Amino acid sequence: NVLLLPDNRAPMIVSKLWYGVGSRDESSGETGIAHFLEHMMFKGTKKYGAKVFSNLIKKNGGSHNAFTSFDYTGYYEKLPSNKLELAIKLEADRMKNLKLDKKELELERKVVLEERRSRIDDNPVSYLFEKLRQKSFTSHTYANPIIGWEEDLKKISLMNMKNFYKRFYVPENATLVIVGNIKISKTLQIIKKYFGKIKSNGNFKRKVLIQTSQQKERSISVRRNAALPYFAMAYHTPNWKHPDAAALTLLEYILGGGKSSRIYQRLVRQEGIALSAGADYRYLSYDPDLFYLYAQPSTGISVSKIKKIFFEELKIISTLNVSQKELKRAIKGIEASSIFSMDSHYYRAMMLGRSAIC
Questions:
Q1: Which of 10, 111, 134, 138 is found 20 to 30 A from 78 (Cα to Cα)?
Q2: Any idea what DSSP says for residue 200?
């Protein structure tokens, strides 16, 4: 797939190559391999050695990076518009010709394990959310962290990595998004020049995963070395494909979308029993995900008291007790956030890519 969006306000482009693979697509015993491979994609190809990719982008006045989520992996370059061909040439090359060797794999394994320790194991809040997801999903790979479980990261082999790369890094599982100062006809010619040489392996299909319905409340208590407790709860909710998705987006904003939201106002501003509070809903996900509510109690305040107030607020809003004024404010807030983000080539490319993959 190719998505092109001309935007001639500045002489620059953002090129993003998306692959329809994330932690949801990993097999048992290989959690974290999608993110691990993202790291390995910067180790060079048969044509361009290690660090050559990065040096070429920087020498031509650009920047680049990558990201992995539950549902996708993406690679992007920000460059002057007259350097568009460079981004396309380099991405097409590493789609087909990535060089994977054991020495580099072992070196990067240490980096990924350290990243897991710093982001998750040494961060009590992140650790709590990891355990919450694991408790929430009993029959879906959304239970696994994007970065993977430590025991799996330690045993992923070079052969595992090569097989994963060959399976998922194929043209039929990729979407190229380019936003910026481009001419569509010329851009398509460049894309065909480089990506047209890569043969498709046939019809690619992602596996179907279904989380079984939950019949009763599940809870978990996590003990970590932290100055204050933290509380989070989650509900299984549909994604953007469901007709209720728009209402859930508004609910997220009204309940916990910033300092004017109901939860923040009551817990932090009015009663002063929490240092922070909010809500989060993953609208653009490949499969149905979670709606989170969370808060950090102030010193001396119990988690049970915070939980009680959350249920009170949910009961109030379930009676459709939302004024037209509050609803309009939520709609305007969401619209404003979306409009402001459209000022950025990067976020326009992000929205296009996420929408196409999910």
A1: 111
A2: P
Q: How far apart are CA 87 and CA 66, in angstroms?
A: 13
Q: Would you list the DSSP string of 245-304?
A: HHHHHHHHHHHHSSTTSHHHIIIIIIS--EEEEEEEE--S-SS-EEEEEEEEEPTT--HH
Q: Is 214 left (phi over 0), alpha (psi -120 to 50) or beta?
A: beta
* CA angle centred on 307, ends 302 and 308, rounded to 5°: 100
pLDDT at 311: 95
User: Is 151 one of the annotated active-site residues of the chain?
Assistant: no
- Rg of the chain, C-alpha, whole Å: 22
DSSP H helices, 26-73, are 33-40, 52-59
Determine contact, residues 235/290, Cβ cutoff 8 Å. Answer: yes
3 state DSSP class of 213 = coil
Angle between the N-to-C axes of helices 158-168 and 102-116, in degrees from 0 to 180, rounded to the nearest 10: 90
Residue in 26, 38, 130, 313 annotated catalytic: 38
Tokens for 214? Answer: 């939950």
Beta 274-281 vs 231-237: how paired, if at all? unpaired
What's the one-letter identity of residue 197? K
Cβ atoms of 284 and 242 within 8 Å: the answer is no
- Rounded to an integer, what is the distance from CA 96 to the centroid of its chain? 24
Convert the pLDDT of each residue in 258-316 to its tens digit: 899 999 999 999 999 999 999 999 999 999 999 999 999 999 999 999 999 999 999 99
Q: List the structure tokens of 318.
A: 């379930």
Q: Are 124 and 230 in contact (CB under 8 A)?
A: yes
Which tokens in the block code for residue 98? Answer: 């990535």
Mean pLDDT to the nearest integer, 206-233: 93
CA 104 vs CA 1, 63, 147, 219, 284: distances in Å: 31, 23, 18, 41, 34
CA distance 87 to 63: 10
With CA atoms as reference, report the closest residue to 350 among 93, 16, 2, 12: 16
Output the six-digit token pair for 303: 């988690």
pLDDT of residue 240: 95
Query: Which structure tokens are listed for 4?
Result: 């092109």
Length of the chain: 358
